[in-house]
Amino acid sequence: MLQQFTVRLQRFGMRLMTRPRLDLPLLLALFLLACAGLTTLYSAGGGNYSLVGGQAARFVLGGVLLLVISRIPPPVLRSWTPWLYAASTALLVVVAALGEGRGAYRWLDLGVMRFQPSELLKLTMPMMVAWYLHPRQLPPSWKDIIVVGLLIAVPAGLIAEQPDLGTALLVAGAGAFALFLSGMAWWRIGLLVGSAGAAIPVAWQFLHEYQRNRVRTLLDPESDPLGNGWHIIQSKIAVGSGGVFGKGWQHGTQSRLDFLPEHTTDFIFAVFSEEFGLVGVIAIMLLYAFIIGRCLWIAMNARDTYSRLLAGAIGMSFFVYVAVNGGMVAGILPVVGVPMPLVSYGGTSAVSLLTGFGVLMSIHANRKLHD
Amino acid sequence: MSLRRASIKETRGEVALFRRRALAGFALILLGLIAVCTRYVYLQVYHHDEFAARSEQNRIKPRAIPPARGLIYDRNGVLLADNVPAFRLEVTPEQVSDMDKMLADLGAVVPISDDDISVFKKQVKQSRRFEGVPLKLKLTEDEIGRFAVNRWRFPGVDVVPYLTRRYTMGPELAHVIGYVSRIDADDLDHMDDEEEASYKGTTHIGRIGIERSYEKLLHGAPGYELVEVNADGRTQAVLDTTPPTPGKNIYLSLDVRLQKAALEGLAGRPGAAIAIDPRNGQVLAFASFPTFDPNLFVNGISSVDYKALTTDPDKPLYNRALRGVYPPGSTVKPLLALGGLTLGLRRPTDTVFSNGQFCIPGQSRCYRDDDRGGNGTVNMMQAIEHSTNTYFYKLALDMGIDRLSGWMSKFSFGSKTGIDLVGEVEGVLPSREWKAKRSKAGWFPGETIIAGIGQGYWAVTPIQLAHAIATFAGHGIPYAPHLLLDTQDGVDSPRVAQAFPPEGPSLIRRDSDWQAVNQGMIDVINSGKGTGKKVGIGFPYVMAGKSGTAERFSRKTDAYDNNKNSAYLASRHRAWFIAYTPAEDPKIAVAVLLEAGAWGAQDSGPIVRKILDQWVVDEGGPRPEALPPGPIATSDAPIESAPVSDDSIQGAQPAPATSSELPPDDNGEDQ
Predict the structure, then answer these.
(1) pLDDT of B259-269, one tens digit each?
(2) Interface residue of A276, A296, A309, A310 to substitute, partner B, most B CBs within 10 Å
(3) Can you tell me whether residue B618 is helix, strand or coil?
(4) Structure ipTM
(5) In terms of CB atoms within 10 Å, which of A110, A233, B314, B419 comes out highest?
(6) Chain B within 8 Å of A272 (Cβ-Cβ)?
(7) Number of CB pairs, chain A paired with chain B, less than 8 A apart
(8) Which pLDDT score, from 0 to 100, does residue B9 have?
(9) Min Cα–Cα distance to chain B from A113, Å
(10) Do B5 and A177 touch (CB under 8 A)?
(11) A286-311 as b/e, with b when 16 or more CB fall inside 10 Å?
(12) What would the pLDDT profile of B284-319 be if each residue is shown by its tens digit?
């Protein structure tokens, strides 16, 4: 049996070499991004090889998952979609039940590793929306929009309750992007966005005090320079002191001397900005723009509605990461736990992101042939 | 139904729709990314300078390096105040998991007082968690050894070296040098910003004495180093160093040998002894007894020690030489005589008949002489020699209180001498103005009379009297007494003499005036009949001096009895003796006070002699012969003289009717 397995593995490897099912430009961009991430991490972690090594190992794990998932044809994924969505939402309920009365509770302890069910939703959410819209007449009707809204709202609400505003935002964003790409009429979008804006004062009432404080601190960080404002002020100092060309790799004093909090995870982009300056920031932004554009290009060439919506939503939600984290580091968005994709240190995020790109690769491999 | 519809739905239109949406989405995303980038341009280009500056402020901190305090020497280079390495126990709070348990365990190895612990806990609250906080200062070698063996049990506790002040002479010079102690918040409150900056990193400050008055010289200026710190404030690297300027070394005019002689002379009796070089105002000895060990204060005195010092009835912390006020008694007579000459009221040869008492014309009130029956006809020299009260009663009356106080104020009575020690008091020089501030009753002639013999309102400090006799001995040239002699930038640098010019022209109008009074004071010691005749026996130079026995309490009853024993008299008298030598060209002037001495010459005279003997030895002069054993029989009032009823040996208060308005005696113990 083992022999049989090795033979199959060999065959798989051969096929990979001879007929690449992967989009090489996207893969190259992801590789560059991962390299930039590891380089920054090395500096931010103070030359700690085990930190970089651990992150590289996660990239390898994510890469393997990417390869595996890229082998699964989109119709198969589509057929699994309702079950995956239901399972991941059920896990959220379990977490919520376990976490009763314990404050922030996001983790499931599996013995060997802990993982956040909310991470799964980042992928299963756009899958579910795409699955639902796939057979419908597009652009979607009000009825479809309401159903999709519910599909988004239930898990996103559970995640926001944990409370994990950042992930809730990413999950809801991924679903919303699928809806957007499905061709939902602009006037309907305008109506929804408008009413959502009107609902902000209401939503404010439902925010946790610490979340409200984050928003308040964002509006005036200097009012609390040692408390909540510390993160934002030190991050802005790091970014601003980087200037156009940066202080140079491993010469960022803000992170090296620990003024910058969380400088390997949520605030790693401040380290990057400090050391590589505006030039580095623009380069990395171009890389992100390329990745997103490439995802949308793959989506445009996808074979069916499900693949199109899913690929597009995954690509566009990548933007949410970049914009929210980049904005947070630069002090224009509140401090929410959204990592800089493939740059921030942290296992779950890297693995789930690469898994998502695995789906994209699968869609790419099963693209329609141009007519 | 829906599935069927899906299979036939119009795919081409849907693809086009998706394409439009994807492009629109991508355009929005690009806009979003550009917006984010704009923010980075704003921070990194337009506000780069501001944030770069803030980043530098974050990481680069100036750190003060405290200067080494200047050393203090006596005039011959004997080290009096030193900086010595010592060891202290320091605790780094963040490394200690259970502070109370650690302190209890540590207390079993090295004794730690409750004081240490309470001060330590206060400091822990004020410092950063990773900073070492001193727990116990000045460890003994034994304690260091015992801790070293047990060190593994106490993570976060270290033995740390530091420099501490040590006063080599201990109590002998406590009232002169004073001491340093830890700077507290109150000290910092009293400093301006610049001064406060100069104390960055300094832990100790001069509290009293020379340490206080020459704080600026001794302190020096701090150096700075620029250090890179992390967010916790921990030093990562030293970027630049400006070394501190150490404080100047100070040479005092004191001679420790004379100081020792003075203290030995006081022999455990509360009092003061001061020696001054009349030629320049340099203070050669400045003793106040009882005294204390200044070393106790340097690193924080324990409450037990402090309580012992403050509750001691003899008040060892009280600087009698500088702050104690006592009636000067007969010691002012030579100066009053000089005033009579200077003001043209007397010639040296003018005589007065002393029959034992002096009565104001037209009043029944009479004032006594010391010798029953008086001294007969006396001229100025004889009046000084015998301390004839009548002569001075009359002189004071002729002079009047205004001229008397005006003259005496030239000798710094009633004002500070200006010695370079902090806390000097002014005492009281009787005058109309002084009394008018305190009493509605006018000035009475009787008050002038007793002022002539240094009684009544008079209150002088030993330094005032020493200054006055030194000014006279120095032919009237007034020098403010001072202890600072030289300064020095470092041990290898030359000593730089400090100039203390005289504060004015000589107070002596004619040399013959000075000679006459000088003769009177020479006779006190050398005539064979003078009040201080035994003080000069065997002394190689001609000595001049004057005794003074002042009453401590006003006398209200006849209970006072001159025939009582010395102990009784000592409890009622202040014993003074002032002297200078060589009489023809004085080089040293001495004033000695015993708070409880029976008679000036008998009790304080030998102390003066002891100091002068030491001075002769130091000068390399002929060795003085030892003072003959046994009591010095001379005194201001012979023991056999009986009191005249309702009167006093030296005047005391004039009448019961006015005495109620009079101020208390020198220390307010009575009335």
Answers:
(1) 999 999 998 89
(2) A296
(3) helix
(4) 0.89
(5) B419
(6) no
(7) 147
(8) 55
(9) 31
(10) no
(11) ebbbbbbbbbbbbbbbbebbbbbbbb
(12) 999 998 999 999 998 878 788 889 999 988 899 999
Residue B97 burial (CB count, 10 A): 9
Q: Give SS3 for B284.
A: strand
Strand boundaries in B565-620, DSSP class E = 573-581, 588-594
User: Which residue in this structure is represented by tokens 């001691």?
Assistant: B312
From chain A residues 79-98, the ones with a CB under 8 A of any chain B CB are none
Amino acid symbol at A85: Y
A244–B45 C-beta distance less than 8 A: yes
Residue B207 near residue B297 (C-beta atoms within 8 A): yes
Which one of B198, B213, B288, B330 is the catalytic residue?
B330
Distance from CA of B47 to the nearest CA of A (A): 6
Output the pLDDT for position B533.
80
Burial tier of B444 (Cβ tally within 10 Å: 0-12, 13-18, 19+): buried
Cross-chain Cβ contact A316/B29 below 8 Å: yes
Q: What is the largest CA-CA distance in chain B?
A: 153
Q: How far apart are CA B162 and CA B66, in angstroms?
A: 12
Other Cβ atoms closer than 10 A to B635: 26
Q: Chain A: nearest CA to B238, how far in angstroms?
A: 14
Calculate the CA A40 to chain-centre distance.
Answer: 19
Residues B33, A289: C-beta atoms closer than 8 Å: yes
Residues of chain B with pLDDT under 70: 1-11, 126-131, 185, 201, 232-233, 553-570, 621-671
Which amino acid is present at B559?
A
CA gap B293, B285 in Å, rounded: 18
CA nearest to A233, candidates B422, B515, B231: B231
Q: Do the Cβ atoms of A119 and A352 come closer than 8 Å?
A: yes
Q: Which two tokens stand for residue B70?
A: 């200047």
Contacts of A183 in chain B (CB under 8 A): 14, 17-18, 20-21
Tell me the three-class secondary structure of B117-178, residue by residue.
HHHHHHHHHHCCCCCCEEEECCCCHHHHHHHHHHHHHCCCEEEEEEEEEEECCHHHHHHHHC
Rg (CA), chain B: 37
Q: Inter-chain contact A254–B58, Cβ cutoff 8 Å?
A: yes
- Going by C-alpha positions, the residue among A255, A219, A250, A223 that lies closest to residue A237 is A255
What is d(CA A224, CA B542) in angstroms, rounded to the nearest whole number? 81
Active site residue B330: yes
Q: Per-residue pLDDT for A15 more than 50?
A: yes
pLDDT of residue A17: 61
pLDDT at residue B670, rounded to an integer: 31
Q: What is the torsional sign of CA A30, A36, A42, A46?
A: negative
A230 touches chain B (CB under 8 A): no
Residue in chain B nearest A287 by alpha carbon: B33
Compute, in degrees rounded to 10, the torsion defined by CA atoms A271, A272, A274, A279.
-170
Would the CB atoms of B14 and A330 count as touching at under 8 Å? no
d(CA A142, CA A107): 36
In whole angstroms, how far apart are CA B398 and each of B345, B392, B393, B443?
8, 9, 9, 15
CB B607 within 8 A of CB B576: no
Q: Are B54 and A241 inside 8 Å of each other by CB?
A: yes
Using a CB-CB cut-off of 8 Å, the residues of chain A touching B31 are none
* Residue A59, φ and ψ in degrees, nearest 5: -60, -40
Q: For A326, which of B6, B36, B51 is closest by C-beta distance?
A: B36
Judged by CB atoms closer than 8 Å, whether chains meet at B37 and A273 is answered as no
Average pLDDT of span A194-213: 81
Nearest CA to A307 out of B22, B5, B23, B32 is that of: B22
